[in-house]
Specification:
Blueprint (H helix, E strand, L loop, with lengths): L5 H5 L4 H12 L3 H20 L4 E3 L3 E8 L2 E4 L6 E4 L2 E8 L1 H7 L1
Antiparallel strand pairs: 1-2, 2-5, 3-4
Helix pairs in contact: 2-3
């Protein structure tokens, strides 16, 4: 039990600790819980790849940001570089989640 709650001490919860905590709460095996978590993450990833927004009502939304090409500077050399346009995933917390952590 000590290693499950050690994330509270250090402020970080690993995937293994999340799987263990959910398995304990649901009464499922860790293997089943890990398979479910992998399935959820895979589904979110595939929908984001298609350009779709994934909304978990009350929790938040996973969205894709479209970043324009821009000029930048290499911090090591100071040389000017061109940063290409790209897509980036972003999570936007929902109201219930925001209220819960305040």
């Amino acid at each position: 039990m000590l290693h499950v709650s050690c994330y509270m001490l250090y402020g970080v919860m690993t995937k293994d600790q999340l799987v263990e905590a959910v398995a304990n709460k649901c009464g499922c095996s860790k293997k089943q819980t890990e398979e479910c978590l992998e399935s959820v993450l895979d589904t979110i990833t595939k929908n984001l790849q298609k350009g779709e927004k994934v909304v978990l009502t009350g929790f938040g939304a996973f969205v894709i940001l479209h970043r324009k090409a821009r000029a930048g500077v290499n911090p090591k050399t100071g040389a000017k570089i061109q940063i290409p346009a790209m897509k980036a995933p972003k999570f936007r917390a929902g109201k219930a989640l925001k209220d819960a952590v305040r």
